[in-house]
Protein: CRAL-TRIO domain-containing protein
Amino acid sequence: MYISKKGFKDIIALKGSGSGDGEHPSSSKTKNVYPPIESFWLPPSAADTAVDASKGGGLGSKLLQPLRFRISSKRSNLKMAMEGRHDPKEEEAVDRFREMLFLDGKLPTKFNDYHTLLRFLRMRDFDTEAAKDMFLKFIKWREDFRTDTISKDFKFEEREEVKKCYPHGFHGVDKYGRPIYIERIGMVDLNKLLQVTTLERFVKYHVSEQEKTLSIRYPSCSIEAKKHIASTTSILDVGAVGMANFSKPARYLFTEIQKIDSNYYPETLNRLFIVNAGSGFKILWKALRAFLDARTLAKIHVLGNNFAHELREIINPSNLPTFLGGNCICSENGGCLFSDKGPWNNPEIQALLQVMSSSDETYDNEEESGLASEDALLDNRKIQALEEALAETKTKIEALETALEDTKVILKDLTQHIEDLRS
Ligand SMILES: [Zn+2]
Structure:
């Protein structure tokens, strides 16, 4: 068993919030708290490739290292930046974990990913047996819940209606480049919520959003920030939280979502800011924290009404709605929590992501068959299509510019003509 350096604890330790809720939970002493999963990122250098090619490592690293570093194209530089530099000790642990799962035949290609494996290891304090147990339950749950196909199979038509009685949503990125998630839990109207959806459908919706975050939001943020992004900065507005928030269905929803997030999406929370915490909430918080693990608790900042300054330290006002002290209103989308604004909506990033994911599939196939597959052709065709679309846009712009020039000439002639008539 490999236990990571205790020093990590200091890096993310709470600095204490303005409202005086910064005390550490007593149980946190028994667990390590790690820095954000992206922390080891440094600008990639030529040395990275050499290190990866020459490194020893076990069977895991030799056979199963994803082929990211062998891709020769411009995209490989971006991929390397997105992958980030790995901490050698963590990498060693991941290699061992990978080898263990592989030898047991329990490592689906889809999850043979450094950061996914690392998240499970960290959640179980680098106890590989415990991490394996957690990982296997995760695979089983994905099968039972049909998580792999949820984005295709599940349509949440009531999204807009749900957001009206349960205000929440992703909104922009923090200064580091992580997506921001906001929830105004005090404004939840559970009776209305249950009129427009069911608890079961809401949980499914939550899972589909988690999948979107992992497969689209994080990679898009990574492309934009040109570094590895794999966690969320969350803001929970608890203004007006009352007993209604603790009714039976509310408790069910909270527990169910909390269970799914901590068991199957571990280590994806960067920090959680609880804002507008009044005296009532602070009493409830004391009870609530008993349900949260030490690792999660260490990332939570409970703030009263004077939260704007702390939020602005890590988030630009343009990415904060006005109700959180920023200057964004997203009027064209009917409000910030309806907009889902962020790099994941940028068409260029979406196109790049599509090309990159199809090249991943290509390399996965090559790994299995040892041959270049038809997917490589498909990949090339997609790039070609993109280039053609770009060329077409250029042509259109040129045509517009020509038309503009023509108009100018005509106008000039016309002016001359008018002047001739006058004289
Ligand atoms: Zn906005």
